[in-house]
Amino acid sequence: MSLISGDSSALLVDGKLVPGSGGTFEVVNPATEEVLGAAADGTAADMDAAIEAARRAFDTTGWSREHAFRARCLRQLRDALRGHIEELRAITIAEVGAPRFLTSAAHLEGPVDDLGYFADLAENYPWQQDLGNAAPMGIPTHRYVLREAVGVVGAITPWNFPHQINFAKLGPALAAGNTVVLKPAPDTPWCAAVVGRILAEETDIPPGVVNIVTSSDHAVGALLATDPRVDLVSFTGSTATGRSVMRAASETLKKVFLELGGKSAFIVLDDADLGAACSMAAFTVCTHAGQGCAITTRLLVPRNRYDEAVRVTADALRGIRPGDPNEPGTVCGPLISEHQRARVEGYLRLAVEEGGTIVVGGGRPAEHRRGFFLEPTLIAGVDNTARVAREEIFGPVLVILPYDGDDEAIRIANDSPYGLSGAVWGTDEDRVRRVVEGVRTGTLGVNGGIWYAADAPFGGYKQSGIGREMGVAGFEEYLETKLVAEPAAKQRG
Ligand code: NAD
Predict the structure, then answer these.
(1) CA-closest residue to ligand 1 atom 39
(2) What domain of life is recorded for the organism (predicted)?
(3) What is the pLDDT of residues 32-81, one digit of tens each?
(4) Is the pTM of the predicted complex or chain greater than 0.70?
(5) For ligand 1, is residue 295 a contact (CB within 6 Å)?
(6) Is the distance from the beta carbon of residue 241 to the nearest atom of ligand 1 less than 6 Å?
(7) CATH of range 264-446; options 3.40.309.10, 2.30.42.10, 3.90.226.10, 3.40.50.2020
(8) Cα→Cα distances 462→90, 318, 370, 414, 416, Å
């Protein structure tokens, strides 16, 4: 039986569930290579209609001014999604290859509940802020600031955490009063399409406020960057695509918000529990087969304990076998596609060419003859100049690097084009704090602390992005600022 009914694979355009004018394309289960079914293949014409609908809904309805109505709609969407959570979970496991244990907090229940946080912001945010009186050029004036929606948001998302990222864009963009065209990744169209069906059938969100265009063609999403009717592009994906989106958006000078790649460092200080820290680093890189932008993929250990750290980390990785994502005990599922696995395997060959050693893993697990699985892998014997230490691999692959002294650990962590996330383990609070202040990244976990939450801003320094997602900072990315000045005598209240 199909996981999905016909209407669940439609586009959502101007409040209607419609077929893609390009027909359909296949949805593949990465754990079995089985074709699960078909998704609507949106074309440039569908994208044009979706953008037009979003423009009309923004320009001709009261959506952007009706804060309480938007809060109600977002809570309605959250509650409707909660009512379909097992349907969504089944699709997420089958389409994304997401391990079941990750589907609640990271993929589904957590991000769905986060919509409530943004509903609260729609209701409670100070939309008008008083600047008080002044006398610029000698004229007594009262000033206030209005925060207003930016307009039409084009949201382009990747396949690795599709619900979390789709909701992290829909939540704040809608709460702020924007209308949205969402273009999900070609590998995970159903995750978005089912949300479109639920939104259309079970919420009062007006037609045109949310449009969802699935497509097999990346170029269809690229139209969101060039179209003058779109006011802001909110993009999550690779740094290379982010550059292209920013270039394309520059023609119409629209706002760009970018959440991009990472090569984050896990720094083990010499007073840390080496075994616990290295085991945690191994576990982290296996989670969702390493397909997370903020996963720590460079393990930095004191040089005088390098051999011991390599041994402990290799043992931990050996103990984590890739498995069926449906099984509750599976940590490391498949990679999303054959293309992605081939790309990761290319990096493993490169590691050897660069003089590195594959200490553990490096192959396809013998027990899975189907599915895009790869063994958890440890690369040792390279330094931070190696491409495998500098480029995002996006698989269950950890590179272990030695350092001498805390300052060198900070230098190596920062010697990267990226600056997304990281981890520091140590017992001396002052030393840990020095490292925290020295590492240039958007988030950092200390001794296992979890930085992800609805109210916690997430994003990158350097080439890991521009702007922040989540929290008040993330909400404000979707707002414009209007300063109003009136004669001081007119001040009210
Ligand atoms: P990708 O850049 O290939 O694709 C992302 C999205 O962009 C997809 O929807 C794709 O169809 C679309 N796209 C591709 N080319 C485009 C173009 N020229 N113009 C407009 N849209 C285009 O990324 P991916 O392989 O889907 O995802 C993995 C990447 O995403 C990794 O680099 C990862 O680090 C990054 N990522 C970042 C975050 C973050 O928050 N920083 C979160 C998750 C994933």
Answers:
(1) 259
(2) Bacteria
(3) 999 999 999 999 999 999 999 999 999 999 999 999 999 999 999 999 99
(4) yes
(5) no
(6) yes
(7) 3.40.309.10
(8) 37, 34, 39, 10, 9
